[in-house]
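I have been asked to look over a protein record a colleague put together. What it holds is a sequence and that sequence's fold in token form. Please read both lines and tell me whether the tokens look consistent with the sequence. I do not need a full report, just your reasoning and any doubts. This is what I was given:
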Amino acid sequence: MAFQSAIGSELAQLLLNPRSVAIVGASDDATKTAGRPQRFLRQAGFAGTVYLVNPRRPEVQGERAWPSLSALPEVPDHVFVLTPTGTVIDTVAECARLGIKLVTVLASGFSESGPEGAAREQELRSIIMQTGIRLLGPSSLGVINPRARLVLTANAAFAEPDIPTGRVFVASHSGSMIGALVSRGRARSVGFAGLVSVGNEVDLSIGEICAATLDDPGIDGYVLFLESLNHGAALRAFAVEAAKRHKPVIAYKLGRSAAAAEMAVTHTGVLAGEDDVADAFLKDCGIARVGILEALLESQPLASRVPLALGKPAPRRVGIVTTTGGGAAMVVDQLGIRGIDAEPASAETLAKLAAAGISVNPGRVADLTLAGARYDVMKGALDIMLAAPEFDLVLAVVGSSARSQPELAVKPIIDSADSAKPLAAMIVPDAPQAIAQLTAAQVPCFRTPEACADVIAAVFGRRSPLALAELSGTTTGSEARTLSEAQAYELLDHLGVPHAPCVTTRIDGEAPQALPFDYPVAVKVCSAEIPHKTEIGGVVLNVSDRAGLQAALATLRANLAQCAPGIAADLALIQPMRQGLAEVLIGYRVDPQAGPIIMLAAGGIWAEVARDRSIRLAPVSVTTAQEMIGEVRALKTVSGLRGKQRGDLPALALAISALSQLALQPQHAVQEAEINPVMIMAEGRGVMAVDALVLKR
């Protein structure tokens, strides 16, 4: 989806800067849900026109009410519908007839409530498609723009006056979360440029809404609260444009504990569980995914200082300087849990510290002890470590002095904040003054080691979305059909993925007199109707001669008659037996939300247990495929570790990249493609697929 600023600016104006709003179903009771938006708008001092629609009252909360939308003296920019579910369809249809361009719907009771609700939701979609009206929700608690004093929401949290204004834009599936973030932001002196509760995303999605605001000079970054990736393409397009504008995106997504897709046809669907795909999707989109709620508000300053580097190694090296060894140890522990190691200072850096009269012991933490409470000691240590090439980020961990002497404790950190290298701080005691001073100076700062490590890992884990390919034609809409293994190999030949040589023969015929390869061989049922051959006894291994081949064909016939009667299976596929140094699975899949993905996983019987795999959005370059190989722990055994024989990992990277190119070849209509196993041969001898399963749409 290409970003179109003209369309985006119109949507942003209607949504966040309307000249007039109408509240349908406005209540005279200001404490009720339907009475809050009017009260909040007046309390905030909204300067636009507010029309109250209530057919039962001439006045609502002391202001004139209108009997219907059609009775209004003008067509409002934005309509907020607060009436019950059963009235929504007719109200939205009326809005469309009157030429209203945007409507927000509070009511629930749509697709989430069963077949009747799904039918109502489809009616809404039909109105949207036929008329072009835009809809926010259903289940939307509304929109807030503090800069325009627009508090068009039913969220009770906005009863508090003076919503903090800032430069962060929030979009959330959960309506309650926008209120929670405002209250937490107020406590941390974090303000907002806008907040939107998107609800069910029947029409407007988080991605489209955020894209509409990208050229707003008052927005520096985005915070997303996600319950799903139902509109992944729009989110992906927004993320690419946000990266171009250097506006960081942070997300908290529910679903970390979701089970794998156990009913998937291939192992790829099982191993690449829903949340694993979402995690890869967000990282590849350059979105920092945090797992701690507090980190949502603490992550923007650091994300803005760590650029998304295209074609460069991801930052991973954290240098830690501290006045409290125990506090620093907690951060080191939490970083380690998330796969980030605290980097020891080099001998050269230690020498520079010593020359400056700063005494630290070699190790993962530069512990200044109590001497670090002195300005000159901490400032000197920070200057040296920020200039050291072995660190991608320097973290200052401050102990009790942050509470007893907050100004002195954080002054050297604030005075070092303009360094070219990112600097952050973690404050061990409860020291709100120190935190406030660091926040005011725009220094990334954290109150807990968990949130500190979570943000660092999330920001480091982003990958530049500018490398993402433009996709077209990928679909999951039609019924899938499975190819036979022989047909799957024809596709691999087209892609340039090497596989074991093979021939086919009739199961009910005579064994071939000669084969184009040597015995021993594997003999397998070759049928599109039988994707999982071993389950029906459809594989015979280590066949050593022609007589054994004839017997293997007889075994396949008998097993088919017993385990798969009536299923069309006329051919057998014959392959030479091969032995590699290791086995892996390479899987491609078009995910309904994330789009095409490519996965590399450890092969063998433990693949599903260990869940040792790497996932990316497809297609991937050979360089990215090499990164994926480095993330699969089992492949360290063929990387030359401790003198062991090397496998041909460069050939594996080529095969991964080649299979992933299906994302750019919609003419093949491949929904899933899995090569399992792929044999990794010795260095220089390539890789070889010895089984393949392909589903086409």
About this structure: The chain has four domains: 5-219, 315-460, 501-576, 582-696. Residues 1-7, 258-265 have pLDDT under 50 and may be disordered.
